[in-house]
């Protein structure tokens, strides 16, 4: 859902800017009734107001804009950089939803989400087959990483020229395969989980069908904390480029702290949910 958050945040801030700008222009017109006002300014104000009102009719935009602050209060709060960041990070910009009703893109029937996923996500055929098999047959299939999340991680790997990746939470192996596909020929993935049954039943055959990719992956069975500790003890600190955390939520702080030790300066940690 992180990719949708970025889109919604961008839209939210754009709407705030537009509405506040419109208010300031209208206030200026009221305060200076005898001054000459250009047609361009009037047209711009009208356009912004019309666009803002039209967007407000979309229920999803209303959900994003839900706040107990008035526009005048928003104007005051975000008029300075410090005020803007205080407002942005001291309160949720939209209503949060319980985890029980948060769904992955492959579970959604929202036509906009379906369209965005179809147009923007270009999965490797083998990864797509593994994901489809997981969704169709695996228990608790919603543990599968969403395709846009995996593609985002692949893009981060390529952008940072990563060669070594840590994958915390194997499940059926989709994320491990995604990272291996993005890494260079001499790349390495260590994927860790306390149970490999789902991997064996629903993912391993697809991964093994691409030997040039599967050779990059080392699946570790056991608690991820122990695997990470063993890497630190072996002198691997600062030698890894990328880490993906998508496992038991209670251990996220532990996973994060250990990944910080293992990653090089400039390394990237991607955390799902």
UniProtKB/TrEMBL annotation:
Alphabetical list of Pfam families matching this protein: Methyltransf_3 (PF01596)
Protein name, entry field: Uncharacterized protein
Origin superkingdom: Eukaryota
Record bears the keyword Mitochondrion: no
Gene Ontology biological process terms from the UniProt entry: methylation
InterPro entries the UniProt entry points to: Cation-dep_OMT (IPR050362), SAM-dependent_MTases_sf (IPR029063), SAM_O-MeTrfase (IPR002935)
Signal sequence coordinates: 1-22
Alphabetic keyword roster: Methyltransferase, S-adenosyl-L-methionine, Signal, Transferase
The organism's taxonomic lineage, starting at the top: Eukaryota, Metazoa, Ecdysozoa, Nematoda, Chromadorea
Keyword presence, Transferase: yes
Organism of derivation: Parascaris univalens (Nematode worm)
Similarity-based family: Belongs to the class I-like SAM-binding methyltransferase superfamily. Cation-dependent O-methyltransferase family.
């Amino acid at each position: 859902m992180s990719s949708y958050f970025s889109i919604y945040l961008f839209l939210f801030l754009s709407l705030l800017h537009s509405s506040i700008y419109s208010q300031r222009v209208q206030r200026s017109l009221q305060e200076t009734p005898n001054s000459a006002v250009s047609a361009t300014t009037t047209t711009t104000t009208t356009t912004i107001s019309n666009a803002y009102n039209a967007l407000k009719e979309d229920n999803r935009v209303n959900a994003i804009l839900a706040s107990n602050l008035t526009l005048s209060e928003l104007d005051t709060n975000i008029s300075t950089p410090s005020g803007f960041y205080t407002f942005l990070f001291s309160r949720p910009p939209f209503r949060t939803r319980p985890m029980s009703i948060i769904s992955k893109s492959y579970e959604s029937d929202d036509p906009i989400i379906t369209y965005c996923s179809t147009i923007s996500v270009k999965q490797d055929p083998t990864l797509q087959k593994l994901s489809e098999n997981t969704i169709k047959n695996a228990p608790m299939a919603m543990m599968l990483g969403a395709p846009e999340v995996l593609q985002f991680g692949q893009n981060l790997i390529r952008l940072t020229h990563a060669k070594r990746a840590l994958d915390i939470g194997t499940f059926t192996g989709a994320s491990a395969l995604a990272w291996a596909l993005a890494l260079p020929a001499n790349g390495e993935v260590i994927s860790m989980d306390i149970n490999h049954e789902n991997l064996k039943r629903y993912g391993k055959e697809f991964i093994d069908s691409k030997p040039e990719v599967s050779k990059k992956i080392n699946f570790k069975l056991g608690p991820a904390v122990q695997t990470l500790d063993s890497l630190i003890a072996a002198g691997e600190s600062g030698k890894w480029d990328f880490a993906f955390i998508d496992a038991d939520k209670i251990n996220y702080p532990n996973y994060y702290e250990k990944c910080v030790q293992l990653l090089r300066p400039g390394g990237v940690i991607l955390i799902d949910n």
